[in-house]
Amino acid sequence: MFPLLTVNGAAVSTDDDVFDVESIAIEFDHESGNSHACAACGNPIAQTTTGWIDDDGEEECPASADSPPTGHQAQPLPLSWCNSAAIQLEEEQDAVTVSISVGDPRGAFTFTMTRVPEDADSELAGCLLLHMPYPKQPFEHAPLQEVRPGTYLVGSAPSPLPRHLAHSNA
After folding, report:
1. Which of 29, 39, 80, 126 is the most exposed place for a label (fewest CB within 10 A)?
2. What is the band of 170 on the pLDDT scale with cuts at 50, 70, 90?
């Protein structure tokens, strides 16, 4: 079986000997350092100790209808939280691993789907297993807090989760 690589729905040729499809990775360019844009003018903005400034160093939003003009209205840029995402095909282990890095770019959350060999001496022989991150996992990429079974808050909330969102085992 040969994987078919597509980008935006179009097949990408993998016939080239130098292009061995075992791992596909997407890395985001965060060189600008901007993780936010102004909701009013759309300019990329960066946070300073006095507020938000655009790439020209302006604190006042050019789209502000107020007199005098008001500051930029910060909104996070889509996917600015993501360092990278990758898919790795592991034929020898009969597994597929998806990795997503959101914090320290040297690590990632990994999700692995693998099949237990058919001839394994186990009631799980031939079954698929999903290995995924869990709270307080050794060497975790970022802290996880269960919101409800299967859903986790990544990192820390600005304040404790409201009681109706925090999962209880009681």
Report:
1. 29
2. very low
